[in-house]
Write a structure and sequence with these properties.
This protein is about 50% helix and about 20% strand. The protein is α+β, with helices and mostly antiparallel strands.
């Protein structure tokens, strides 16, 4: 089971989601997408909360409002973190999550600690949490199928881009050949013209010589 929430409208059309338990978290870790940003209460047990950014966006695109929605939701879904003030929430791209065989179910590390950001959450804001909970929807998605469909579509786009690149390269090659042929033709025309002028000059000289001989 995955719980889906809608971020505040002024933040944009973003979906925030989290797994029901650590086993669902494991599936989310395994079948995430490049646009997913992962949130967790630092050094405490909590839900794994994600926000799916728009294609091509990075963590820098997360507005203050969207960040508050995510951090409030993850704090509210931490048994310990929900009870105390001034907690830290860490967040990083899904692609930076590291999973090794020795880790427990739902446990993760990071490939690059420099890609992990930390934000301090002073207290729970009930207004934010209640608004998010009113948008809550439960679904049982086929995360593996969604993951595979995403990368299949990406592969199709790359193939189309490669075909277009090859088509443009072929058009450029033909255009260069055409331009080269035109330059060669113009050079040939100039050469022929120069030869004709020399022939005329030679003919004129011969007539002058004939006249001199006649005189």
């Amino acid at each position: 089971m995955v719980f889906y929430f809608k971020a505040r409208p002024e933040a944009g059309d973003y979906t925030i989601f989290m797994g029901l338990d650590k086993f669902e978290n494991e599936e989310l870790i395994k079948y995430g997408l490049p646009e997913d940003i992962w949130f967790h209460v630092d050094k405490m047990s909590s839900a794994h909360v994600y926000v799916r950014l728009h294609k091509g966006q990075t963590m820098d695109a997360i507005s203050e409002g969207l960040l508050e929605d995510c951090t409030q939701l993850v704090k509210a879904n931490s048994i310990q973190g929900n009870k105390v003030n001034n907690i830290d929430v860490v967040y990083t791209p899904w692609s930076n999550l590291k999973k090794t065989p020795s880790m427990d179910v739902g446990q993760v590390g990071f490939h690059n600690s420099k890609m992990v950001r930390t934000v301090r959450v002073e207290k729970r804001i009930n207004e934010v949490v209640n608004r998010l909970n009113r948008t809550k929807v439960e679904r049982k998605p086929d995360l593996k199928a969604e993951h595979e469909a995403y990368y299949a579509a990406e592969k199709a786009v790359r193939k189309a881009q490669l075909r277009e690149k090859k088509r443009r390269e072929e058009m450029d090659r033909l255009e260069k050949e055409k331009q080269a042929e035109m330059r060669s033709y113009r050079n040939l025309m100039v050469s022929d013209k120069m030869t004709s002028n020399k022939q005329i000059a030679s003919t004129a000289k011969s007539l002058q010589e004939l006249e001199e001989d006649f005189m």
